[in-house]
Structures are given as C-alpha cells and as structure tokens.
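I am still getting used to backbone structure tokens and would like to learn alongside you. Label the sequence line and the structure token line clearly, so we can match residues to local backbone shapes. Go ahead whenever you are ready, and we will take it from there:
>
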Amino acid sequence: MKRPLPQPYAFLICDQAFQMLPTGKWCVIGTFDAILVGELPVRFPPFQVFLSLGEFMGNAVVEVVMRDDQGDVVYAVRGQVPPIPDSSPLSNFELAMPFPNVEFKREGSHSLELTVDGQVIAVRSLRVHKGTPHEGGIGE
C-alpha cells in the first residue's frame, strides 16, 4: 500500500529558524521572497528554508532544490528523515534546511521545489533583483 504524500503547511525562506528548548516551539526570523543584489554573480549569505509537513510519518528523503529561471540547479539540500516514533497523521513535522552561501548567477525568478521521496509536493519562488537599496522597495 502506497502511503499518502505529506501536506506542506509551511514552506518559508528565512534568515534563521531554530527550535527553542524546552518548549519545542520554532522561531522563524526574517522571512523573505526576494533579494536585492548589487552585482551578479554573487554569493548570498547563509539562509534557511523552514518546513512544516502534516500527515508525515518520516522514513523518507526530503529535498529542496533551487533552480534559476532557465531550470538550472542553483543549490539543493537533501536529508533522510527516519521513521517518526509516536507520530500520528494529525501531528506536524517541522525542520529547517540550511542553504549556505548560495551563488546566484542570474537575475529573475528562482523556484524552490520541495520533494518527498522524489515527488514534488510544493513549489515557491524567490526573486533575485539587481539594484541598490536606495532605489526603494526590496532590501530596505
């Protein structure tokens, strides 16, 4: 019997995501969907992708692949999630995946594809713009 795909409840690009002890609550800081760069190519400071998956029992490979507007892979993060003990279909599984010093070569829309065991369950975009902060809008 094939297990159902998890439901993506959160798929956020952020500066930081960490779990507080002892509460287990997640802190997601500095969410964004666009970046402003002076020149290209550029190495962007580390960031994270925060995920919350419902109906997820683990025992699967979770991957986030970033592609530029021409479909070329910019960066990918993959992890094997072991079976989650005592999980129920009603509980959420949350994690943060690191993207250290990604190099952006092109301006434009980049897509992030969230896959579980090779099946795409969500896609979101990240726009890369050239400019300076004093031009207003993104990056201010």
Observations:
- The longest strand covers residues 7-19.
- The radius of gyration is 16 Å.
- Confidence is low (pLDDT under 50) at residues 136-140.
- The chain is about 0% helix and 60% strand.
